[in-house]
Amino acid sequence: MADTGAHGSTASGAGAVGTSGAATGGTATAPAVLEVEGLSAAYGPVRALQDVTLRAEHGRITAVLGANGAGKTTLLRTISGLVRPTAGRVLLGGEDVTRAPVEAMVTKGMAHVPEGRGVIAELTVDENLRVGALFRGKVPSEEFDRVYSFFPRIAERRTQTAHTLSGGERQMLVIGRALLARPKVLLLDEPSLGLAPRIVAQIFAMVRHLVDTEGLSVLLVEQNARSALSVADTGVVLNLGRVVVTDDAARLAGDEDLRHAYLGF
Ligand SMILES: Nc1ncnc2c1ncn2[C@@H]1O[C@H](COP(=O)(O)OP(=O)(O)OP(=O)(O)O)[C@@H](O)[C@H]1O
Ligand SMILES: [Mg+2]
After folding, report:
1. Where is the ABC transporter domain (predicted)?
2. Residues 125, 254: one domain?
3. For 4, how many CA atoms within 13 A lie in the half-sphere containing its CB?
4. Cα distance between residue 265 and residue 246, in whole Å
5. Residue 22's pLDDT is what?
6. 264: left (phi > 0), else alpha (psi -120 to 50), else beta?
7. 37, 20 in Cβ contact below 8 A?
8. Are residues 73 and 124 in the same domain?
9. Residue 29's pLDDT is what?
10. Is 55 a domain residue?
11. Are 100 and 81 in contact (CB under 8 A)?
């Protein structure tokens, strides 16, 4: 586990739980790929995100944790432009992309794997992967081979139609498809949902491997806080649309009060 050297920073406002060594104003040690500043979003009267500030660092996994309805999916949808913020900014590699069209986000280097692992059921595994690279024009076959090498289970099933895949295999396929877009930052929404612990461990280990060997940067949204913190570098806890605490993942996992209050383990 990499030590970010970052100091824990609790959000100002009610409900913040202290962490060991917590102090305001975290010190970052790696360049930010993605910066979210004061982001707010609403669905009519429902204020789903309120003044959320966080950063995803290069070559790191940043986990965003929180209970059902905390605003995790809304955060990813607002970052990738599917939901328009009512306030705040999103910076990708230092560029303000807050108002950029959704399709431009992909070409700028943001890949979003939404909740529910949407494969195109009628297409084969191979065809699904090709969809991820469509906007890039001709992609060398070695890149597909590389993605298959990360996920041998889907390599064995490349001519099968996607509707025949298990949940875990679908998750591998949608992550593989996102990798073919060559993202600077990968946004993953609840990859563990409904999967057996052994498969979750495999998928998280592969994400960690990609970060360590390919320089990928990941913003991982998870309700399964225990598993997410075991692979992440940094954790951000959301509650009712607000950041409660940001800290080193190992420190968050070791904070019993915080775990009981917000993380459910
Ligand atoms: N399309 C929508 N219209 C209205 N309200 C919505 C919509 N999507 C989400 N919400 C509300 O916004 C809040 C945050 O929801 P969100 O889906 O972002 O939470 P989440 O943390 O991803 O939850 P889960 O762990 O269940 O996926 C909730 O109160 C939810 O009811
Ligand atoms: Mg969600």
Report:
1. 34-265
2. no
3. 28
4. 18
5. 35
6. left
7. no
8. no
9. 67
10. yes
11. yes
Confidence of residue 13 (pLDDT cuts 50, 70, 90): very low
Q: Which residues contact 50 (CB under 8 A, 6 or more apart)?
A: 40, 240, 241, 242
Q: Which domain holds residue 246?
A: 30-109+185-214+231-265
Q: Rounded to an integer, what distance in angstroms lies between the CA atom of residue 57 and that of residue 61? A: 8
Q: Give me the DSSP letters along 187-254.
A: EEE-TTTT--HHHHHHHHHHHHHHHHHH--EEEEEES-HHHHHHH-SEEEEEETTEEEEEEEHHHHHT
Query: Which residue's alpha carbon is at the smallest distance from atom 26 of ligand 1?
Result: 68
How remote is the C-alpha of 82 from its chain's centroid?
15
- Domain boundary (166, 183, 200) is at 183
Evaluate the CA torsion angle 147, 152, 156, 162 in order and state its sign.
negative
69 C-alpha to center of ligand 1: Å? 5
Q: Residue 49 CA: which ligand 1 atom is closest?
A: 14
Reported confidence tier of residue 148, pLDDT bands at 50, 70, 90:
very high
Ligand 1 contact via 71 beta carbon (within 6 Å) = yes
Q: Which amino acid belongs to residue 261?
A: A
Among 40, 68, 76, 80, residue to substitute to test ligand 1 (most atoms within 8 Å of Cβ) = 68
Query: What is the pTM assigned to this prediction?
Result: 0.90
| Integer Rg of the chain from CA | 18
What's at 76, amino acid-wise? L
Shared domain check, 43 and 56: yes
